[in-house]
Amino acid sequence: MSENNEQELSTGQDTFYYDNTTVRNFLIAATVFGVVGMTVGLLVALQFVWPEANFGLQYTTFGRVRPLHTNAVIFAFVGNGIFAGVYYSLQRLCKTRMFSDTLSKIHFWGWQIIILAAAITLPLGLTSGKEYAELEWPIDIAIALIWVVFGLNMFMTIIKRRERHLYVAIWFYIATFVTVAMLHIVNSIELPIDFMKSYSWYAGVQDALVQWWYGHNAVAFFLTTPYLGLMYYFIPKISGRPIYSYRLSIVHFWALIFIYIWAGPHHLLYNALPDWAQSLGVVFSVMLIAPSWGGMLNGLLTLRGAWDRVRESATLKFMVVAVTCYGMSTFEGPMMSLKSVNAIAHFTDWVVAHVHVGALGWNGFLTFAMLYYLIPKLYGTKLHSQKLANAHFWIGTLGIIFYALPMYWAGFTQSLMWKQFNPDGTLVYSNFLETVTQIIPMYALRAFSGVLYLAGVFIMVYNLIKTAKAGSLIREVKAEAAPLEKDYKPAESEHWHRKIFEWKPVRMLVFSLVLVAIGGAIEIIPTFLVKSNVPTISSVKPYTPLELNGRDIYVREGCYTCHSQMIRPFRSEVMRYDPNDLEYSKAGEYVYDHPFQWGSKRTGPDLHRIGGKYPDSWHFYHMLEPESMSPGSIMPPYPWLFEQTWDKDRLPAKIRAMQTLGVPYAEGYDNQALSDAESQAKGISDGLATEGLRVNPDTEIVALIAYLQRLGTDIKKSEEISNK
Amino acid sequence: MNKLKYILLTLTFVFPGLTMAQDEAPAKSFLELYQVEIVLGLAVVVCLVAVIAMYTLLVAMKTMLRMKLAEDGVEEETELIKAREGEEGLDFWGRFWNRFHEAVPVAKEESVVTDHEYDGIRELDNRLPSWWLYGFYFTILFGVAYLINYHVIGTGMSQEEEYLTEMQEADEKVKLYLASLDNLVDENSVVLLTESVDIAAGKAIYDANCAVCHANDGGGGVGPNFTDKYWIHGGDMKSIFSTIKYGVPEKGMISWESQLPPKKMQQVASYIYNMEGQPSANPKEAQGELFERVEETVAPADSVANAGS
User: How many whole angstroms separate alpha carbon B112 and alpha carbon B76?
Assistant: First the structure.
């Protein structure tokens, strides 16, 4: 330190200004979209108790609004939070203004426009049907472009820095940038058929693997690594304490980014993924405990000697709970990745509780801490009220507890009910609905927790507005630092990590990319290339054009948000979902599924063997008024399917797209597809007419029934053949 | 004598089968009888030895390291000891917390501060907490052992094998259970149950499984009406039982054979049998043919004993 300072003094100082405006803008955006995203969350929580809370509109029905909630809180609330924190800390850690004000503006407005586009398209049902990556292809491209703008702006700032060495926060920012870029691009490869409709390039098992490689690492590299970077900046800044251990930073950073990327398959345990890939997901998840906890330790132990201040400062309290929640969920996650635990946890509300401890606790509270710290700083004043901030803290903490406990309870209850057998070999709760109505009180409590948490946020918004009004925005902050001398060579005595990486941002970036590419490549490439990973089933044939249309409706309505299409190889599942043939879901059944629709949560029953289980009329009644067939059901009615007509115009294009993706429709089938679809629709409509149900064969319900009745039936045809 | 009693008592805890085995003819050898206990015992011993060995190794390595460091003139270890002196004023937990993480106390932290500073942020360079580091090593070992177990030597079951085992075990258990019950009624031997226990059980089964399509009061919906005299597949006990058991898949009536044991199908069939002529709120139009019933054979009263099953 002393050596550097002397040089700085002798070479003279540059004067420059930090840009606070962009930081402020991102903070406002994070707050606004936080409120929006959480309000939508509350709305969907209420729909579990009162399905009517969709207002009877297709645009506000759970399957469409749930992606809106997740996208809003992840990419709008947390995303803007990341950018605010990065733009604030990076300038100061690099002793320079952001590289380009224009890029900062493009980044800010570009990101907000993307969010707006998401908020419009998702309720309209324009979705690619892949969880946490629902946005359609033009928005995907926009995200990639704006992300590159962010990366460029960040990286050029690092290049022109006046601080030789990169602080640990910046390592995390760099890893975040390269990895998210890689994940987003690989997972979003899709074939457009027109402006707002595309099909995932991958199918079935491969699509699932790529999707959860992405999905898990969206948690890792969007919700975790950038926030660890923010933690490394803001905890020492707010507490005035030095970081606990430099070498812990090094070990846990590299270990974390290397190991995290492998863990995706733990979302697909006991699914139709090859065993070896599942095992990799398990062991790398377990290995993640220590690297994750390294971050928690470095955060909490930094606060040694500052705990008396934690008692007084709401900001530090938010930080402490955030880091603690991070530690809890990063221990719980690996435990849930053990196959025996996963057998119980998967598809239940346990997973929902788990992510919300992370989202509400880690991301939410850390963002709040940042807001409470930065807004007074940016406006050159003091926080309006510490009391209100403390009130926010306690009400928010209560909100987290009231969320987590009922959801754990609901998860255990439902899972145990699913698996309980009578001694005579029948399921105790053979009607799935019993396992739903049992936990509705827990859903009500969860909604209440949302009210608490959101109330806290409103208190914060009031407090921050008051604070901002008491001061005025300091747009430019003057700073001085010496430029870096040209020919620097690290001294022999320097720490190896400083010598190799910390003054070489490009090297850091490349090495991070290589490191994160390894895990994905080893898991994904063999799953695509080695045929034995997806054993083919000869009787599995492509969907008929009408079924394909029905499938698009299934995707549009977000059915996958409540229904899985994956019967795991458990007695309790084959007995429940395929009691006659006892056939669990096989990899070869999904080869024409672009995108896969395995789902991750069973609010309703699995649908993979729904085909042929009930007559068409059952589905007709059920979609019109679920409670007529399943009294007590919390599924909303879908009356618009009986008015809207299925998509005839784009049918040939859809068939051609499928052919491009390798689905073996005969050459020129696109010309015949429409008439085939119409005659199949007429058949279904005529069949319904014999039961006194008049339905226009062009309506969407007919296409959806066609798809549902086809689901999971092909594999049985092979048995019929082999039995003969 | 007392001693012997204690030894025997202890043995009873360790080998739960011991006292019982004395009564039976000892057809099996000791090794066969206590295979599981012996393997478990050995495993515990091996683990203990491994832990002790690892601990010894660790101490030895630390000592060597300290000697080497002393030779090189590095005094890291002594610094830590000196740093411990800075713990005055800390309570028990404060001291425990520092020692648990092997942290240099706050009062002495200048000794481990690094020479760089970023925007006023300084960094200490505390040691990696041993519990954390060895925990990390342990998870890596776990990972290696896991992969070897499932994919190299193959002692762990694949999910397919696990599934088949689960199904087979369950199958055997269920067969044993059913064999122990008066549960062997089929469509040829089925008779009408009239006891209120059976009818109540039948109603419960009906409400949970059948009401969805046939309405709570039997008036029909997706499925046909049970309250009129018209039956598509016959309205006598044997036909009703058979329709429930095998289903009519082409018309959407599923087979219940795998979900309901015979006794339960008999109970629900009896309940449905009695629906004919009952009032219905919203009766579906008649389907099938007019079915003239004849007197059903009624189960003798002594079957009540098993009705609750």
Answer: 10
